[in-house]
Specification:
Blueprint: E1 2-3, H1 6-17, H2 21-27, E2 30-37, H3 44-66, E3 70-77, H4 82-94, E4 98-103, H5 139-151, E5 158-161, H6 166-177, E6 182-185, E7 199-202, E8 220-223, E9 227-229, E10 232-234, E11 247-248, H7 255-272, H8 281-309, E12 314-318, E13 321-325, E14 329-334, E15 339-344, E16 350-355, E17 360-364, H9 369-381
Parallel strand pairs: 1-11, 2-3, 2-4, 5-6, 5-7, 7-8
Antiparallel strand pairs: 9-10, 12-13, 13-14, 14-15, 15-16, 16-17
Length: 396
């Protein structure tokens, strides 16, 4: 079983969008993100969906900010009048600085028709349910379908569970337009019918409906569920079934980051008229692994040398966790699990995760050619013949 790393795609797209960051910053464009807070008398299931919307909105804010676009995160009470909501939509339509707008689902039923007032050319996530001549389906549906495209084979058959919903229907439309064979199931149908497919997509939002008893082995399972729980978040696939598919998108960390990547791509196209190249997950994964294979042994050698020669630069953050930090990177050694991780100093993202017990690279994402060059330069300094100043060691 292999977990598909949605952050790999998000970081790749973010790097591509960085080329256009000066243009966004100069134009001072913004994206409006509207979400509703749940009322006190909603069901626990609906409340969980509102909580998921909050998390998703916050991720969108971070995504757009990363590429130089300000987000106006508007949080509304479910009790506001329809006229107030429509006034907000109209102000977004009339504001030329607003490049795009998103209305987070779920929304109270009374506002359903009001969403259609949003101008089509600002509807980046197809919240109106209608094509706008740029995009046919919501970003989540496109992201899921493009992951499927990365694994589909000539004779593939895709089961879309929850295919009648907003996201599921978008997945089916995308796959059919790409001439990929698929069929629809709903929550409550006989899920054993997924045996007829080699790829399964689930977008029901029903926590843990896929268990080892109903999920046979597949080439790919895409879990589009996202339900906040007391212990974190859960998807449609029960954790006990993760070991069964050959590849699976985890929750969290799978479809969510991919959705953010699609939205970033769309903003570049919508506002700048630039269409980014189409990614393939397996190709990106291979490219990142090739870069990680170069950097990982250098970081391993560096940490060992510094720990021996300049131990004063190895900081113990907590028991069994040791950090070597420089101007650009930090190398983190977790002794309890024998894991060496590499991250940029100004980011939380782990670029490389190396399992020292078996010398296997478990994570490789967000690595640029510049990173490879810098680490190759560091490698020239990890040479016993070179004399390092005893007061500083090697600068990362």
């Amino acid at each position: 079983m292999t977990l598909i790393d949605g952050q790999l795609i998000r970081e790749y797209v973010k790097q591509e969008c960085q080329k256009y960051k000066p243009l966004f910053q100069a134009s001072q464009k913004e994206v409006a993100i509207i979400r509703f807070e749940s009322s006190e008398n909603v069901s626990s299931h609906l409340k969980a969906r509102y909580d998921a919307a909050r998390i998703s909105a916050e991720q969108k804010v971070a995504t757009f900010n990363a590429i130089g676009v300000t987000s106006n995160h508007i949080v509304l009470s479910s009790n506001i009048a329809v006229e107030q909501f429509e006034s907000i939509i109209q102000s977004i339509n009339e504001d030329n600085q607003v490049a795009a707008a998103i209305v987070q689902y779920p929304i109270p039923i009374k506002f359903t028709n009001s969403i259609r007032l949003l101008e089509a050319h600002k509807d980046i996530d197809i919240v109106r349910g209608q094509s706008n001549n740029l995009f046919e389906n919501c970003a989540t549906a496109e992201g899921i379908a493009r992951i499927v495209e990365s694994y589909v084979q000539r004779d593939s058959n895709v089961a879309v569970v929850g295919g009648g919903g907003f996201v599921g229907n978008g997945v089916i439309k995308y796959l059919e337009a790409s001439r990929i064979s698929c069929f629809c199931l709903e929550d409550g149908d006989d899920l054993s019918r997924t045996e007829a497919a080699d790829i399964v997509v689930s977008v029901t939002g029903r926590q843990g409906i896929f268990t080892p008893y109903v999920l046979p082995s597949h080439r790919l399972v895409v879990d589009g569920g996202f339900t906040p729980t007391a212990s974190g978040v859960a998807g449609d696939v029960n954790r006990s079934a993760y070991r069964i598919p050959q590849n699976i998108t985890p929750v969290p960390g799978g479809v969510g980051p991919i959705e953010m990547a699609i939205l970033a791509e769309r903003l570049v196209k919508m506002d700048l008229g630039v269409e980014l190249g189409k990614w393939n997950y397996q190709q990106l994964q291979q490219s990142q692994l090739q870069r990680a294979v170069i950097i990982a042994p250098i970081s391993k050698a560096l940490f060992r040398q510094q720990a021996t020669v300049y131990p004063q630069y190895i900081h113990q953050e907590r028991e069994n966790l040791f950090v070597l930090q420089g101007a650009n990177y930090k190398v983190i050694y977790n002794k309890s699990v024998e894991i060496l991780s590499i991250a940029r100093i100004d980011e939380k993202l782990t670029l490389i995760r190396l399992n020292l017990a078996n010398n296997q690279i478990e994570t490789a994402r967000g690595i640029t050619d510049e990173d490879v060059t810098r680490w190759q330069q560091i490698q020239t300094l990890i040479n016993p013949a070179k004399t390092q100043s005893p007061d500083r060691g090697i600068e990362l």
